[in-house]
Structure formats: C-alpha cells, structure tokens
Specification:
Blueprint (H helix, E strand, L loop, with lengths): L9 H9 L5 E6 L3 H14 L3 E7 L5 E9 L2 H12 L5 H11 L4 H16 L11 E5 L4 E6 L4 H10 L8 E6 L4 E4 L2 H9 L3 H11 L2
Antiparallel strand pairs: 1-3, 2-3, 4-5, 4-6, 6-7
Amino acid sequence: MKNFQIRFYNFYAFYAFLTNRRKQLWLDLNPGISGKIWFAIFKLFFSKNMIEVLEENETKNKIRTSIFLFRDVKNAEKFEQAQKLSWKESEEKHQLYGEALGYPEIAVSDFLELLEERKKDNNEQVKVGDRLAFRSFNYSYEGFVFKPENLSKIIDWSKEQKIPQKNIEIEIFNHRIKKWQRLSKNEIKELLESKNPLKTSEKIAKNRE
C-alpha cells in the first residue's frame, strides 16, 4: 500500500467529512494501482461534488491526484471558477478558493491584505514574521494564512469547528530562509499575551534563523 497513502491523517479527515464535521475535504492520492482504485471509488460515490486536480513535475510526469469533495454544490462551483481564473486575477482567485474550502473569513481577508501589501512593496520581501498558518491534517486543513494579530480569533474559530486542539498546528513563515516553522506552545502563548503580536512574531521568526 506504499504507492497509495490516501495520504492521511486521511482516515480522520474523511471521517470528519462523513460525519458532517467538515463541509469540504481535500485528499491526495499518490500514483499507483491502489490510488487508481480509490479514485474510482470516490468518483463513483461523489462524482457530482468532486473535483480532480492533477499535479505534475517539470517533465510533465504525474506526481499525484488531488481530489476535493464538497457537500455544498455552490462551493464546488466556486472552486471550479477559481481554477479558471489566471494568476493575474490572484485576489479573486484566492478569495474563491478560500470560500470554497471553508477557511474562516478573517483568514481570507488577511491573505488578500498581505497580497496587497506585497504589491505596494513592488513584490519585494515583506516583513519577517508577518504571517502565520493554521494546519490540521486530521481535518484536511493543509495550511491557510492569517496575520499574527488574529491568532486568538483563529483558535476560537477552530474550537467552534470542534477541532481538537491537540490536532492543530500554528506555523510561522520566515521569509529569509523561505520555510514554514511550527510554533511551540510557549511561543503561541507569548503571541496571545502580546500587546504587539506582529512585533513578537517578527522576534520569534528572527530567533529561528
């Protein structure tokens, strides 16, 4: 089954979808016979609300198939609409993706603001530690971006979604080394208690260089 790895954490995410704790689901199927079998099964039962996305490498070889399942057909339509837009229309594209995948409104708004800031800076590197990301692989959230000052709102949102707090990760992006890095419990606590979360986030990022 190595070729397959309906690569989860997947069982937990799929269970959350089946039990209506997730309105959307993102699954990755790696190439191989098992992956093809599982893809056929998902297509049989979820064809109306399923969107297939193929990922290829530079030589155009298929790396994996991602499938997106939606309980609400309108979200599937938003996702398809986003796919049709070019990256020149990135703001609308990202907003549609965020809405379709069930990301919190504050995260969608934050990401669009960060894009706008990049434009004002002529796409130069922006401030170190200016963004965080929320991940919960068990619930099929592979990482959405938000500003440090909204950390408490994102955590409150995750509790409203009934996502066990032990299953979430908060990461910080360090622009200088181009990597996402997981925050410790103490660092998260420091950010939540800070009167200037952006400055604290910048300090945390720089300490990790």
